[in-house]
């Protein structure tokens, strides 16, 4: 449990509701069936945070995640509209005012898994603060069909721009969804990349990723390139 907290880093913020639910089922056979109070759980989480970045723990004190955890991701209509309103108010445009950035840069951010890990200072796998953060979208989505693997918690984004076009409304939606997924789905499992304390990505990075999903030249919207090995099978 605690190891998982250290490893999953920012994904944990998105999955906190799941984690809290799991924490109620104690895994040690002699303790099986015993339940752990929320206070005990938070204490254990706090003790495992050997990081010097105060933003790391703040992720657990977020009012939106608190509501989602308490309601097991089933907020009442009133709670849901409070969340949507609060999350929407976090969204900011890049400095140049453009929702679409550079898709080639976006490809790098989408693939990157750097940033947001919760680890020991000086831990071998700790994220070096001088490197820009990545988004690790492949943990949950198929995106570029040439990328070797992907998770499937979220829907496939392959051909996203081909299927939806590049109209103003879809460009704005895509930017805002990546910036703050919970401004559309109150207890979305997708991280709020641009929002919150110690946000993971800059507005410019979100715009680059928007372009990666939508630009007609992006590999997302083009057929998979055959590898040499695949071509040899013909
Ligand atoms: C922890 C898993 C997770 C990660 C990481 C993640 N997403 Fe998602 N994403 C989801 C889930 C689950 C949904 C569907 C629920 C929702 O809409 O919030 C979703 C929905 C979306 C949608 C809306 C799709 C539609 O049909 O309108 C877009 C766009 C999207 N994600 C883009 C991204 C991008 C780009 C990244 C990386 C910057 C990313 N996601 C990272 C889980 C994730």
From TrEMBL:
Q: Which region ranges are annotated with the description Disordered? A: 60-82
Which positions fall inside the Cytochrome c domain? 111-217
Q: Where is the composition biased (Polar residues)?
A: 63-79
Give the signal sequence positions: 1-25
Keywords associated with the record: Heme, Iron, Metal-binding, Signal
Cited InterPro entries: Cyt_c-like_dom, Cyt_c-like_dom_sf, Thiosulf_SoxX
Q: Which NCBIfam families match?
A: thiosulf_SoxX
Q: Report the protein name in the record.
A: Sulfur oxidation c-type cytochrome SoxX
> What is the species of this protein?
Thiomicrorhabdus heinhorstiae
Q: What is the lineage of its organism?
A: Bacteria, Pseudomonadati, Pseudomonadota, Gammaproteobacteria, Thiotrichales
């Amino acid at each position: 449990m605690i190891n998982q907290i250290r490893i999953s880093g920012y994904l944990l913020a998105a999955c906190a509701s799941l984690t809290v639910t799991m924490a109620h089922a104690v895994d040690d056979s002699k303790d099986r069936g015993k339940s752990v109070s929320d206070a005990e759980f938070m204490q254990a989480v706090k003790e495992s945070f050997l990081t010097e970045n105060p933003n790391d723990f703040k992720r657990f004190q977020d009012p939106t995640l608190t509501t989602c955890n308490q309601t097991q991701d089933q907020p009442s209509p009133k709670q849901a509209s409070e969340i949507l309103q609060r999350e929407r108010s976090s969204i900011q445009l890049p400095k140049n005012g453009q929702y679409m950035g550079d898709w080639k840069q976006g490809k790098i951010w989408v693939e990157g898994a750097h940033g947001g890990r919760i680890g020991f200072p000086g831990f071998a796998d700790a994220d070096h603060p001088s490197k820009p953060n990545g988004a690790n979208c492949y943990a949950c989505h198929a995106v570029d069909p040439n990328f070797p693997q992907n998770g499937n918690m979220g829907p496939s984004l392959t051909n996203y721009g081909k299927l939806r076009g590049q109209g103003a409304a879809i460009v704005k939606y895509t930017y805002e969804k990546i910036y703050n997924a919970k401004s559309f789905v109150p207890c979305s499992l997708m991280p709020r990349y641009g929002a919150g304390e110690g946000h993971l990505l800059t507005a410019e990075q979100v715009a680059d990723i928007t372009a990666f999903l939508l630009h007609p030249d992006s590999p997302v919207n083009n057929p998979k390139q055959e590898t040499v090995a695949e071509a040899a099978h013909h």
